[in-house]
Amino acid sequence: MALSDREQQLLEQMERALASEDPRFASALGGSMTNRIATKSIGIAVLGVVVGIGSLLAAVSLSIPALGVVGFLAIVSGFYFANLGAKSSPAAGKPGTASKTSTSGGFMQGLEDRWDRRQDNG
Fold first, then answer.
1. For the residues of 14-70, what is the DSSP string, one character each?
2. Cα–chain-centroid distance for residue 108?
3. Is 5 left (phi over 0), alpha (psi -120 to 50) or beta?
4. Which of 18, 34, 86, 114 is most exposed, with the fewest beta carbons within 10 Å of its own?
5. Residue 57 belongs to some domain of the structure
6. Residue 64 domain-assigned?
7. Is residue 117 part of a domain?
C-alpha cells in the first residue's frame, strides 16, 4: 500500500530529525541492500554446505550413490552462494582493501619490483 503525499513528507521529516539527532544510529538503520543480499547469500551458502555434508554422510552410511551426488551438488552450490555473497559485500568493492602486491600484478610482480628497487639503490 502506497503512502500518501502527506505521509511521505512526514516520514522524510522524521528521517531527517533522526539523522540530525543521532547520525551513527541513522546510518546503521539505513543499511544498504547489498548488505542484505550478502547476508542472505552467506546464509544460503552455510545451509547448502551443511545439508550437503549431511547428505554425503547419509549416502556413505546407506550406500546410496545418488544421494552422494545430491550432497556434492549442495556443497558446490553452497560455495557458489558464498562467493556470490562475498562479491556483493561492500568491502569487496572498496579501494584499498586488497593487498599491495595483488594490485600491482601479483606476488611475482611484487618480488620483481623489490628486486628492481634493490638494484637501483645498490
1. HHHHHHHH-HHHHHHHT--HHHHHHHHHHHHHHHHHHHHHHHHHHHHHHT-HHHHHH
2. 28
3. alpha
4. 114
5. yes
6. yes
7. no
Number of domains the chain is built from: 1
User: If you search the block for the grid coordinates 547428505, which residue do you land on?
Assistant: 55
Is residue 3 in a domain? no
Residue in this structure with the C-alpha cell 546503521, named with its chain if needed: 28
Cα–Cα distances in angstroms (integers) from residue 71 to residues 18, 46, 62, 63, in the given order: 48, 13, 13, 13
Q: Which three cell numbers mark 49?
A: 554446505
pTM of the model: 0.46
Tens digits of per-residue pLDDT, 15-63? 888 888 887 777 766 655 556 667 777 888 889 999 999 999 999 999 9
| 120 sits in which H/E element | helix 107-121
SS (H, E, C) 60-109: HHHCCHHHHHHHHHHHHHHHHHHHHHHHHCHHHHCCCCCCHHHHCCCHHH
